Amino acid sequence: MMFFNVQFMFRIYLVLFHMYFIGNAFASANCHQTEYRIGEDCCPACPAGMYVKQHCTEFTGTSCRPCPEGTYQDDINGGRPCKSCTNCNAGLGLKVKKVCTSTSDALCENLDGYFCIYYNRVGCIAAQRHMVCSPGQYISQRGTADKDTECIQCANGTFSDGTSSSCQPHTICESVGLKQIQPGSDSTDSECGGHYVYTGLVAGITTGLILVMLAIISTIILTVLRQKISGKC
């Protein structure tokens, strides 16, 4: 009877021991969300903007330090190092939209005259300069922060220096009374010059008008002289 009691007590001891061991292991493996696990212990986590300098012990709490300049920590953490701030490199076509702090990364945006070609979850990480249209092309769509400039070739009989939003028709020299010296191309207008086509006609009309004016003036002078002579008589 006594042997049965000893055996029974031993079994109870084993059950209690296993329950204690499993309970401690479960508690260690499931630390609170504001804690982190080190071995079988749960240590208080460091707040955002700080990192763990030294883990907690049985007698001391976690030792936290602020993130060094140029780094950040955006969440409570246990042992993770601070992350390096994103560099908004002008060489990648970027500028700072929001500066990096100890608790948040920098945000970048593309420089003026650039469009973004690579994004991450928070912003632009690389940009490219807008295309410059060549002479003989016109700008069909100006570049934006998200899209490149679109260029289209000018049609025959028109020209553009590459900075216009449309191509202009070549000047027809004869329509403005000039001779064509150089025909237009897709990047330049027609070159006009020389003498007027109707120079002889214009000169003849001008000469005729001058003669008419002289005749009128002469007539007036003669009339005045005759009146004076008649008065004396």
UniProtKB/TrEMBL annotation:
The keyword Transmembrane helix applies. The keyword rRNA-binding does not apply. Keywords: Disulfide bond, Membrane, Receptor, Signal, Transmembrane, Transmembrane helix. The chain crosses the membrane at residues 196-225. Pfam families: TNFR_c6. One of its GO terms (biological process) is negative regulation of alpha-beta T cell proliferation. PROSITE patterns: TNFR_NGFR_1 (PS00652), TNFR_NGFR_2 (PS50050). Disulfide bonds join C67-C82. SMART domains: TNFR (SM00208). InterPro entries: TNFR/NGFR_Cys_rich_reg. Residues 66-108 form the TNFR-Cys domain. One of its GO terms (cellular component) is external side of plasma membrane. TNFR-Cys repeats lie at residues 66-108. It comes from the Eukaryota. Residues 1-27 form the signal peptide. PANTHER family: TUMOR NECROSIS FACTOR RECEPTOR SUPERFAMILY MEMBER 14. This is Tumor necrosis factor receptor superfamily member 14. It comes from Merluccius polli (Benguela hake).
